[in-house]
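INFO  loader      accepted 1 record
INFO  loader      residues=134
INFO  predictor   begin
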Amino acid sequence: MASFCQFECDITPMIHVEADKSSQVLKLTYSGYVSGEELGDHFGKIKSLIEAMDPGFRFLTDLGKLESMDPSCAPSVAEIMDAANKKGVSEVVRVVPDAQKDIGFMVISRFHYDYAVRITTYENLEDALRSLAP
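INFO  predictor   done
INFO  writer      dumping tokens
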């Protein structure tokens, strides 16, 4: 898979988003502790990268380094999912090393993505990236 270098934005040390137009993959990484205010403040930057993608893009969410996410993040997470769905995401790939730390992503996905969107979860980033390889 091509390197994620075309559009890259370190929003905060806890939120990093990368978009690779050539492979049509958007990668959103959460790490450490993410607050609702922090995520909400940067929703526009994330949405602009979603908007830069073509319909049919794939969305990789990496929770591998996430320690905790404040429950107040839920509205922003839902808005990100809605924006990706509206843009025409075809596949959502998640990295969740411990299923008990899913923090509700799978549940809210059912309300914010169309049924046709394929959603898969992996325990590590290497397997997730392998699944996205051409």
